[in-house]
Amino acid sequence: MNRKIAKKLNWMLRIVLFSTVFICLFIWLSYTFRPSTFFANNTSTYEENAAQTDVLFVGGSTTYAYWQPLYGFNDYGLASYSYSGPAMSPVIMKDLLTEARKSAEAKLYVIDLRALHLMETRPEVYTDEYMRVYTDAIPYSVNRNEMIKNETAWKEASFDISNYVDLIYYHDRWRDLNWDSWKWSKPAKEVDSMGFHYLGDTIFSAKLEDYSGNTNRAEISPAVMDVLNDILQYCKDEEMQCLFTLNVFECDESIKEYYNTVGDIVSEYGYSFINTNDYWQEIGIDPEVDFYDNNHLNVMGALKYTWFLGGYIIDNYELPDRRTDPAYSKYYSMYEKNVEKTGEILELLKPKLLEIKGSDNDG
Amino acid sequence: MSIISFGFYAALLLLIVIYYIVPKKAQWVVLLAASLGFLYMASGLAMLGAMCAEALVFFGGARLMGKTRHKRLLTSVTVLLAFLVLFYFKDMSFITTLQQTAAFITGKEMNYSTFQILAPLGVSYYTLSLVGYILDVYWEKYQAEKNPLRVILFAGYFPVLTSGPMVRYDEMSVQFRSPHKFDLDKVARGGERILLGCFKKLVIADRANIFIQGTMNSEIAPNGITQILAILMFALRLYTDFDGCMDIILGVSECFGVFLPENFKTPFASRSLSEFWRRWHITMGVWFKEYLLYPLLKSRVFQRINKFMRSKFGKTYGKKLATCLGLSVVWLSIGLWHGGTAAFILASGIIPGFLIICGELLEPVFKWLNLKLRINTKCFSFRLFQRLRVLATMCFAWVFICADSVSGGINLLRNIRTNIFNPWVFSDGTLLTYGLDIYDFGILALSLIFLIIVGVWHERGISIRDSFAKQNIVFRWAVLFAAIFVVVIFGVYGPGYNAAGFIYGNF
């Protein structure tokens, strides 16, 4: 009898040990084979700075191209980070917030809801590739599985194991690997912008109208409504202090009315919603020169936007001024580097600016 | 559900757990339920019903055998019915082939019939297995099974449905009835075999297929050497696809303690075509030999033919001719079994059959030639020549399957003649324009070397599995982990690839 039990124990031990070693090797190889995504690159320093972050900006490209955390620090003492990536689907926003909060709890979450209308009108934007930008930047976890499950359920896509198991999806990348790929290292950053991403030196002349007086409401589809309610309920349940925004872009009246409705829903949960399209003149946005394309501000627009939103935040929320905090001294050197970087881009924009504005314009 | 899908292996793990938890007397019921579920998911309820109906017909026929005087009639009707069903599902395109042949002979244009009939998974395999069952009962090799569900399990046993092997009822029945105690080492060995099969299929076969498809679908016809390479790749693909599938099937079955017959025995080590067909798709060859060839040769008609031939051509040649006539019937049947199209009949039936028959008839001539030319037939170089000859012959036959039609095969052979001497394709990058890069060729080369080494060991009677099982656990695990990750990383699957099913799954 003892022999039988010993044999069975031996089997169990071998199964457990084999499985454990296999899983560890599999995870290690998965991380090695994962490509470096935009989101991963952009947020590569987030974990190091999470504990010092008071304000977390979450959203798509209209977050990482707009809010300049280090200018926010220098001008208002706000310690912030842009936890953002391209085409961030609102379906996975809740899961990304969960992921971010694993590192540290921020005092204020500024969540951009631009993607809601995109989901409504152009759901095809949210391809599997965009989902992978986020899921491939996150370690294997229950939260990651939830994220994938939510996104595939939204798309009504069938179960695909390669969404959950990176190595199956990226196994062909063995051709792209080199010796460095096998080292445990994060993407190096020449200039750490705390999640801000410098768009190129392009000027796009946009058309902005003043729809701030429009108080009509447009309908939101039940599916998008569910997504919005899900995010809001999550924030409420977790007792998170949040500010919801819609960042400046070239929009029309229907979008204004859509977000009037969004604002109503946000208010029902006790949160504030600011549609910065209503304030583009106050912000000082020059539609002729401050845009990168019809959906994004360029660096000139971003500076103005940061100035405006930073002021709004400190007027409406109690947040510490970290400029006098010695723990944040490194932010100053980072700020200097960002000023240098911003200057480089402004230099590149100057000739285009002069072309549009003529020689009278001093940028 | 493919046997190389994640879902299949997840279900298999669960099934293994259930199989070894249930009382041993109920283990066969678990296999039956799994088989019915597998066939339902693969082919749908209608096809599952078709398989069960066919199995029940054979069950009923075998049971009636003991209660009727008209055994022969009953057996003949049952077997004929089965072949009609098989013909309907698999060989209706033979009618098109006959029409095309008639049009070719008469020179008249015809409207060809086209057929698109969905066949149940494994119909070719289980039909022949059931025919073998009823014939064995008819010949009183064993008693008819009393439980219809056991016959359904025999016919629809899920590992076998994809690509065989063809099994015998008495061998399977004993194993289904035996209690199977859980033994981790045995289950692990089954897993190792599955891994080997996945390696052959995903790393080698599907990778070679990229090159084959690249050359076949190329707008500009590739030059001669490239086409030859494509045909050799096809041979490699066909072998590793089918053998890999067999490894997976046998490995899966081994996990349940049910051992299926081997279907391959290093076929490219063969020195003659006859030997090749004793090493390639072994169970099919055995089935046709035992259930078609021998009964045919023993039949009254063939006895008369034998007598007539002997009277005309002498004892030795007369007997040979009669046997060859029987072989012709067998090879034509094998060709039909593979599919009713002319390409399959030619490649899998007529060509090998014709060459084997010629080999049989001309054997004395070859012996005389070897003697006269003082050819040493017992040296390595001669054995190598024989093996290369077998490879070349089979590649020639497979050209028609590779090209998917007789006319396509003829065109391919014609194209090979043009610009055949172009050895710089190996260095000028031409070969890299058909879907594979230099790394892929490297992987194929290393895999081929691996297969050759394993084949040589097998030929020398070394059981690699047994030798491996004797090694220390750290070494075994290191090799297993390496093998698993070689398959996962270098396997051809996932986004960017067209999933290639098993070739013999089409039968």
General description of the model:
- By secondary structure, chain A is of the alpha/beta class.
- Chain A is built from 16 helices and 7 strands.
- The longest helix of chain A is centred in the first third of the chain and has 32 residues.
- Chain A is globular.
- The model of chain A has no long low-confidence stretch (mean pLDDT 91).
- Chain B is an all-alpha fold and 507 residues long.
- Helices cover 72% and strands 0% of the residues of chain B.
Give a short synopsis of this structure.
The complex is a heterodimer of chains A (363) and B (507). Chain A is α/β, with parallel strands linked by helices and 363 residues long.
DSSP helix count of chain A?
16
Low-confidence stretches of chain A: none
Taken in chain order, the helices and strands of chain B follow as: HHHHHHHHHHHHHHHHHHHHHH
Helical fraction of chain B: over 70%
Order of helices and strands of chain A: HHHEHHEHEHHHHHHEHEHEEHH
Quickly give the structural class of chain B: mainly alpha
Radius of gyration of chain B: 24 Å
Distance between the termini of chain A: 88 Å
What is the helix fraction of residues of chain A, given as a range? 40-55%
The shape of chain A, in one word, is globular
Major sheet details of chain A: 5 strands, parallel
Task: Count the E strands of chain A.
Answer: 7
- Class inferred from helices and paired strands of chain A: alpha/beta
Give me the count of strands of chain B.
0
Uncertain runs of chain B: none
Largest β-sheet summary of chain B: none
Strand neighbour order, sheet with most strands of chain A: 2-1-3-4-5
Termini separation of chain B (Å)? Answer: 16 Å
Using the alpha-carbon principal axes, give the shape of chain B.
globular
Radius of gyration from the alpha-carbon trace of chain A, in angstroms? 23 Å
Notable traits:
heterodimer, A: 363 residues, alpha/beta, 5-stranded parallel β-sheet, 16 helices, 7 strands, B: 507 residues, mainly alpha, 22 helices, 72% helix
